[in-house]
């Protein structure tokens, strides 16, 4: 058996390649011609490297994709744009996903695992304190969210279209915020990062985090578990801290974060005022803070990983405390 | 005179990054109605339509023209497609706004302008920074004689490749920007160039240009160019090694004006009139007063909601739409479009010639001094009419 991984040189992709190799499976890595393969090689290690085949191609090149995945039973589609304008993210996530899936369908791949994001849910209309699981609705107005979330919603929508059209067996994994060595532990889920200052929005909201190795293990299982075609899995770790709790952990670990606190009742009025000014001034300040976005991202919700544990046979082996320690800037954990 | 209430139906072709700026500014114009967007990728067209409230999204240009009947189409596709698309659109009977750079080279530019003449439709080129409020203020001060007759213009563009677009261009040898005859420079250099040519009216100034790769770059990333007209000279500096900045300096016999397009400030550079050490006190005092004036002006503009990165673009769109409604010539003259394109061709040719000479010298094993001498043989300014349509890959 052999599998193919897109985005194999990335933060998550290279851990996934290592895990798959540890199972003794041959891995084909589809990388951009300009990608640096060295970090992947270091992560996989020399012993396992002999079973890794690196193929250079753009994901938009459907013929090269087909060549690369010929004979592969599983395709893990990890590659995606993480930042930039909406059009850039669509060009690096949505459009290539259509092409890679068409290639996979043509090559009769037995399972296509798409790595999406926990951000795709329409949390704005959920009640505070409710549990977000795989049954929660997808955001109905993703264009009102940030460019990354919008691109992930549309990437999933494109994937479902191709699945329906071609019958390609699809499994979607929705990781929370991925932390790990070199990435730190701060994220937009805590608040707005303004230079060195973190504007903490509320603080009691649980942070849907997953450690990169835990996440890679769940994705691997999504390719292997039987009878789960068409399913979706949220991937988050156990014992997740609140935003306030995480900043406290940072302080105790000797990495205090300069922050100011915006109490929860003030978040929506503040966002409403900012949004009004943005529209009234015809965009003199960028429209980054809207009531829709703030209600989506900083709502206090509970997260569950029950389905992933039950159906994928997955456990987040690395505890959150250990994940936190490894993700700190002073950590000696290897990126 | 047209009816001021008339609306102009606007469509956009190519929903990439710069399309966002176009759509955002078009929406602010009262006489404009956004009717459609079009992109070869349906997903891209859809996202632009959803975010900017455009009623229709297409993947086929002809279908867009027949179903949405726009009066004017903005072309925001990669530069190498401008000629063919502008030609097709003009032939189809619509007016066209083309994002810079105009075309890949002069023959293409001439071809498009021929079609403009034949079809009677108008075309506008994205020289939008000429309508940036701070540049208009500079122009006004020059016209009022603040520095006397202009003798020299300096234009600096800092373009670090660490940005999103820069990273794409760097990492992908097949990126469309790298395929242009002038590579990275062709896509961006028209902005600093037309800021110079506004004061340098010679139809064929002499050009001396040089490009080179910085650090680990595998393609030219830095450029220095000098233009020499009869009475005005110009110098252009493009660098990926400095912070993002757009600075212009306009010099005359009575001083100079320095314009910071990003900071929206303008500063007068002038010798002190006071003797000796007193001059050293006068200069900081003058800078402080100018700083206060800039702060007051920008504060006032902020209160009036008048600080927008793309406000020059909006003004240019507005003037162009008005010219269509009134049947008057477009705000950017066709001769100027051609002149800037021609200057770019000459600059790139000059750079290629110099690079080629250095490479030859290096290959022949000549000593550094000999290589320099050989290179210098081709550093004589190149006249506009020397241009041929030769290309060199930036891969």
Description:
Chain A contains 12 helices and 14 strands. Chain A is an alpha/beta fold and 335 residues long. Chain A has one domain (2-184, 208-240, 302-327): 3-Layer(aba) Sandwich (Rossmann fold). A 7-stranded parallel β-sheet of chain A has the order 3-2-1-4-5-7-12, with helices on both faces. In chain A, strands 9-10-13 form a 3-stranded mixed β-sheet. Chain A has a two-stranded parallel ribbon with strand order 6-14. In chain A, strand 9 (191-194) and strand 10 form a beta hairpin. The radius of gyration of chain A is 20 Å and the shape is globular. Chain B contains 14 helices and 13 strands. In chain B, the strands form 2 sheets. Chain B has a 7-stranded mixed β-sheet with strand order 8-9-10-7-11-12-13. In chain B, strands 3-2-1-4-5-6 form a 6-stranded parallel β-sheet, sandwiched between helices. In chain B, helix 4 (82-91) runs parallel beside helix 5 (106-119) and helix 13 (334-363) runs antiparallel to helix 14. Chain B is globular. Chain B starts with 7 loop residues before the first strand and ends in an 18-residue tail after the last helix. Classes of the chains: A alpha/beta (335), B alpha/beta (395). At the A-B interface, helix 5 and helix 6 of A face helix 1, helix 2 and helix 7 of B.
